[in-house]
Amino acid sequence: MFELPRSRKLLNQVGLRLQLASIGTRLYAAFLACCGVYAALLIISRLGGVWTEWAVPVSLLAVPGVALVICGLWHRKPSRIDAARAIDQRHDAKDLFLTVALIEKTAGEYQALVANAAEERALKIQPVAVVPYQWTRRVARAVLVGGLVVAGVFILPQFDPFKRVEAAREVQNRRKDLEDTKKATETKIAKLQKDESEGPLSEETKKAIENLKTALNKMKPSEKSDNLKELVGQQKFLGDKWKKLSSEKLKELLSQNPDGQQFGSINKDKLEKWTKELQEGSTKSLQQELEEIKKDLEQLAKTDDPVKKAELEKQIKKRMKELSEFASNKVNSKPLTAALQRAMKQMEMSKMEGMDKEAIEAAEKSLDLTKLELKEIAQSAKDLKALEEALKVVQMAKQVNDSEKLDGEQSEGTQTMEEYAEFYAQLLAELGLSEGDGEGMGDQGMGEGGIAPEDDSVKTDFKTEQSRSAVTAGKVLLSVKTKGISDKGDASKEYKSLIQKVKQGYSEAILQEQVPPGYHEGIKSYFDNLDKSGKGSKAPDTGSEAEEK
Question: Rounded to whole angstroms, what are the CA distances from 11 to 129, 153, 393, 496?
Fold first, then answer.
């Protein structure tokens, strides 16, 4: 065996350069071919309106990717013989290095001479000279061709002779809308499930009522002023919560009668039932209606019969429309209306090709969200009732406190607001402050009516005739303004007239301003006593009255 370190090193270096040159050449050719194919398909897509889903900037990454795959499959690693022939050809070595490459397979006395000659020649040969890299022109061509393809993607206009692009864009937009609505539904469901509280009342309402119980149990008869201060604070806190909850969610619902106006296509009996249950904090009928719609949606997803499918779609659409009208017109809940409208929109998407099952599943999710929204509204109705009961208890406690009989130790055994109300009602009755049934003869409480003694034989000045209709309040028949001193008593009359107008409008103001129930009796008592306070101190007169005094 001959040791040929220089020759073998030269052959290895030349072989490596041959391999890299081969990879570059094949990659260059594959890249140009891929660019040509991509450009042809792009022109067909833009002019013919076909294959538009892939003719987007992202698809440009496929060109170098496919070129690399082709290069990898097409490439052949050069052998040592290929390297020897390249050296002999480049330096006119007359097959010297080819003989060296095959020296192990040959026999003869000349082997030593060949080996020595090759070693001497290898010192003078540079691998770079044997296989020079001429890549600048090829890279420039590749960049130019690639740039033209990229420019074509962004500049070449899209034509739509067969209206396929418009249809594909519509499907794409609907699919995107469906994904967006699904994400929004899942996010809202997760939030409502997280906020859902155990029991009929929300955690905030429970906490507020428990705080009121604690405050009532700490009351002492000897601390009338401190008791009143605490009760006023509790009343304000509960009233603010009542007002906020009422204005946000149930302002319209709780102010309507169950047998109110019929809306749209909703059955009147069904409307009354839904309204009454929701006002009472129950969603049984509404939940049942949603379950039936979900079952119809499941059947719609399974059936292939076009007739049955059309009937189910019509039935589902009718039921959803009824619920949507109820949510928007009767409940006036934007979240509930949005959930139902989203479900209806998703059901419409199910008619599009390739989106039927996915859209129906999304509609079922939206119905689940509707259930949670209904539970939220029902719980708010229960919270409102509990807060109203608590406000009434506070008002009764204030009446007991006025008599210095409010003792928290006596109410320690009570658990609910109903028990507190019953306890304070009993105390008020014992103190003679109750507004229960009276005897109807001028004693305390509401009279029974109809049992006062009457004598029809007694003659009176009563005349059986009809009086003229009263002039409408606020209507001015004649107004005369003059300069001078006013007549005696004009200011007093004007004052009494203003008081009368205020008393006529305070009940309407209570409704308009959403005053909590606990304040109603106090406001009524205040305005009823305005006349009495006016009689106690004369209203100031002007002009002649002042001079006479």
Answer: 13, 46, 104, 123
Distance (Å, whole) CA 359 – CA 287: 21
340-375, pLDDT tens digit by residue?
888 888 888 877 666 678 888 888 888 898 888 888
Q: Which contacts qualify for 288-294: CB closer than 8 Å, 24 or more apart?
A: 289/319, 289/323, 290/323, 290/367, 290/370, 290/371, 290/374, 292/319, 293/319, 293/320, 293/367, 294/364, 294/367
CB-based contacts of 265, cutoff 8 Å, min separation 6: 318, 321, 322, 325
Q: Residue 120's closest CA among 97, 101, 98?
A: 97
Sign of CA dihedral 338, 343, 349, 351: negative
Instruction: State the alpha helices, DSSP H only, in 303-355.
Output: 306-325, 334-349
Let me know: does 544 contact 486? Beta carbons within 8 Å: yes
Residue spans of the domains in the chain: they are 5-162, 174-436, 490-548
- Rg over alpha carbons for the chain, rounded to the nearest Å, is 47
Query: Among all chains, which residue has been given the structure tokens 């004007």?
Result: 494
pLDDT in tens, 216-265: 888 988 888 998 999 999 999 998 888 887 755 565 565 555 555 555 55
Which tokens belong to 155?
A: 């500049």
Q: What burial letters (b/e) apply to 500-527, b meaning 16+ CB within 10 Å?
A: eeeeeebeeebeeeebbbbbeeeeeeee
Looking up tokens 């009570």, which residue turns up? 414
Is residue 382 within 8 Å of 281, Cβ to Cβ?
A: yes
| CA pair distance 446, 434, nearest whole angstrom | 9
